[in-house]
Amino acid sequence: MSTHTQALEANFDGLVGPTHNYGGLSYGNVASSSNSARPSNPKQAAQQGLQKMKSLHDLGMFQGVLAPQSRPDLHTLRRLGFTGNDSQVIQRAAKQDAALLASCYSASSMWTANAATVSPSADCSDGRLHFTPANLVNRFHRSIEHETTGRILQATFANEDRFGHHQALPSSDHFGDEGAANHTRFCHDYGTAGVEFFVYGQHAFNGTAPKPAKYPARQSLEASQAIARLHGLKDEQVVYAQQNPDVIDAGVFHNDVIAVGNGKVSFYHELAFLNTSEVNDNLQQAMSNIGNGDMQFIEVPADQVSVQDAVKSYLFNSQLLSLPHLSEGKMGIVVPQECRENANVSAYLDQLIASDNAIEEILVFDLKQSMSNGGGPACLRLRVVLNQAEQAAVNPACVMNDALFPRLMGWTEKHYRDTLSEADLADPQLLIESHSALDELTQILCLGSVYDFQR
Ligand code: SUG
Predict the structure, then answer these.
(1) Does ligand 1 lie within 6 Å of residue 254's CB atom?
(2) Which residues of 188-220 are buried (b: 16+ CB within 10 A; e: fewer)?
């Protein structure tokens, strides 16, 4: 399957589901609110995502695929009192509460950075790799993902000796958890213990601590602490930091919209955190504690790239990748095309590459369909550090390769629509199409019956 000999960081991207649409469902996420009710193109969305996966595979990266969820979520609609057969449930919901139906139709599981928090086995006390699905409790349309997410993760990483799968945290704002979007791991090399960096938006139990005034803080400190406990992380390997509440109010709904890290590199905006110098001291201290040497901080100044430019371009929702063709410690940065369309950000990127730091190469992708809902390259991927034995234990049908790519492209051609508007959601035919697409997908990816409609 893979030719990699050491521990590596794999990316598992979410395959965009057949009901991708612009529901305007995420208050505080500027793109979601501003593209509300525009028609979408699910086929193009899925294919843009697949192109990114294939390109990274071609560059020698270990690239996985995570299946989408089945939508509309009929189980939830029935729980909320809509009765009858499947078509009647959809038609009744469309008539009584179109916004609720749109929520149950969202393809938001594509943003797998929010699927779970993942801790590599080298960091965990029981020597297994740990997954905790995110409860995503802050947004209703996302709060209905975690159960199926857990099943998909268990079918993709199906080996109890190697992989530990937890339940999502309790579904309460106190434990609001958005997964890996607010979590980064710094390390000297992937296979040895690293520093896990948890970024939160608010304290749940301390009413006097700072918090945003306008938009929701989706991650609590207490949620991050619970995950560190569940995964068996050592205190000296964990750093917590609070997001600057002002940037949340400017549209930075997850930390991965304003900061990203890989290896020893922390690439972040000047205004990303509260008490930045303390945060950086803590990271450096933790890296030193476990013998990992010096962090490399790349701080982007606000006078070169404003928070607004960062939110519009998604400069920080990039992937920093240790590409196999680069020398040790060097990396490429995967950015969305919007970064080249923003003059300040584009100039900054050119300067970044020309100056002396770890980032050497820029890779630009067209992800417009996902970007229009606030999902950039980093939102679309869940990072999973895998040692050799773990690589071998991954479900091989979920690993991108030269055969899987054309097969999935052909599958989207066969099953996906190229336009979808709000009115289409009332059409029960869309459910039939989605079910037949996903039924075939579970065979392609050898997942077994992960969807309710298959059980
Ligand atoms: O949760 N958008 C997603 C975008 C998630 C981006 N993920 C990361 N930053 N890691 C969200 O806000 C919009 C769906 C809609 O409006 O139709 C949405 O769910």
Answers:
(1) yes
(2) bbbbebbbbbbbbbbbbeeeeeebbeebbbbbb
